[in-house]
Amino acid sequence: MRTVSTVARRWFGPVAGGYLVIFGSVALAADPQAGELGQAAASAEMQVATEGITHEEYLQRQEALTAWLTGQMPALGLDEAIGIELTPEEMDTIENALPTPSEPLKIGVVRAMTPAVQIRGLTRGQLSKQIRNVFTGVTSPTGDGGLAWALSIESTGAGAIRVHIEDLSLPEAAELYFYSPLGEAFGPYTGTGPVGTGDFWTESVFGTEGTLQLWIPGPASPADLRQVSLTVTEVGLISSRFTEAIRDDVTASQNFCGNPKCIVDASCFGGTPAEPAKNAEAKMEWISGPYIYTCSGGLLADNNPSQNNYFLTANHCINKNSTAQNVQFYWRFRTSSCNGACPSNSGWPFKTTGSTLRKTGRKGDFTLLQLNSNPPSGSVFLGWTSAPVAFSNGTLLYRISNPNFGPQVYSKHHVDTSAPVCSGWPRGERIYSRDDVGGIDGGSSGSPVVNGSSQVVGQLSGTCGYNPNDPCDEVSNATVDGAFAYYYAQIQPFINP
């Protein structure tokens, strides 16, 4: 469970006869449109997490874990790796695919491990000598009578790697890890894995190589060794185009970190209503079918004492619990100064993995997730309001998102009730706006949009217009968000029971 503190904040909302000043964590205020139906608008104040670890503590853990795993590595473990390469055709499906309104941005592919690496028990003989087989890994005895096993996977064209483990079953005290020689390390995976089924995806590690490493402390009995079971069935490979600090194909039409020219660095804009979202928003990475995808999303405040750590994104990004379980969240992935160096991943972004799908809907294009792990200490859970804004022409809206799997960007919009409506996206269920500052692009989907009081009023669905492939054409295109007011009743039992 997270511990939060409510930010003391006041906001003003129009009511019959004047303005109402509202305090507290949850409040009700009459809204002109809702009031005509005899309804009221619910709201919640933003909250700040006081549990979880800091980014500095996270990096210290990564460094210590990598050093320990390197020390436990069997001597032959670094000599040879299983090679899996991206084909030109696979690269083309990732890097040159045109965006579609029904699919998030592709950033990688999934390849079958052929043959699969299958471990069904280890033998006593492996306690006394080192054994290597490129397709089953390296085993080596440890000084305390235990056993170490390692398997390395390499892809020279990849920017990041993660692996699919099935049939995991480990004896008590045995620990499986996944790490890179560059310094990222994750685990331990124990027993039957994070969700108790023996089937899961590891976290991704940046670079061209990742190593699975199993440690069985001594004294290890024959029964312990017989219990070891795991199969590596698939490998996820993220294109290096999306992990490099600055892409090689930057042209005159592009600027900040290889983005289109209208995209602006969030670090250049402080003090806006979107400021709290910088510590609430995360870029997402997950595997579904043959591809790896990315979207954005943000932490959402709640008034539920028994459940929390809620995260809002789009239905067209995540709409199945099986997908929600393997999502990675990259927190505060941004530049350190205005138009400064693009994140190179060398400082290792703060990542958490896994969530549970609580509610999702195609109408309103929303998904409410509950995180399996605490976000970084100091993270902001954004306040929200169910007051409708879709018909409030000229209302200003603000956003932080992570397009193109890159650093945070800022955008400012205004509601445009005259914008043409796309089929299947009716106004009211969706909010149509025009871009005033900055813009959105592939990977921005799911990012919360907030009002002038930093309250969530929706999340990004995409672009509607005559020139959707140009994210900088704010005349031909409108930005479209799923309206929080439209689907609030569906998530109310979770966030405001």
Strand-helix topology:
Elements: E1 4-6, E2 11-15, E3 18-22, E4 26-29, H1 32-35, E5 41-44, E6 47-49, H2 55-72, E7 82-83, H3 88-95, E8 105-120, E9 131-133, E10 137-141, E11 147-154, E12 158-169, E13 175-179, E14 185-189, E15 200-201, E16 205-206, E17 209-216, H4 222-227, E18 229-239, E19 264-265, E20 281-288, E21 291-300, E22 310-313, H5 321-324, E23 328-331, E24 350-353, E25 355-361, E26 366-371, E27 380-381, E28 383-385, E29 396-401, E30 409-415, E31 430-437, E32 448-450, E33 455-465, E34 477-483, H6 484-495
Name the descriptors.
elongated, seven-stranded mixed β-sheet, disordered N terminus, 6 helices, 10% helix, mainly beta, 497 residues, single chain, 2 domains, Thrombin, subunit H, 39% strand
Question: Care to give the gist of this entry?
Answer:
By secondary structure, this protein is mainly beta. The protein contains 6 helices and 34 strands.
How many DSSP E strands? 34
User: What is the name of the CATH class of the largest domain?
Assistant: Mainly Beta
The quaternary state of the protein chains shown equals single chain
Which architecture name of the largest domain does CATH use? Beta Barrel
Based on CA atoms alone, the radius of gyration comes out at 24 Å
Count of domains: 2
User: How is the biggest beta sheet arranged?
Assistant: 12 strands, antiparallel
Give the N-terminus to C-terminus distance in angstroms. Answer: 17 Å
Instruction: Please state roughly what percent of the residues sit in beta strands, choosing from under 5%, 5-15%, 15-25%, 25-35%, 35-45% or over 45%.
Output: 35-45%
Shape: elongated
Structural category is mainly beta
Question: What count of helical segments does DSSP give?
Answer: 6
Mean pLDDT value: 86
Low-confidence stretches: 1-38, 246-253
Task: Estimate the helix proportion, in percent.
Answer: 10-25%
CATH topology of the largest domain: Thrombin, subunit H
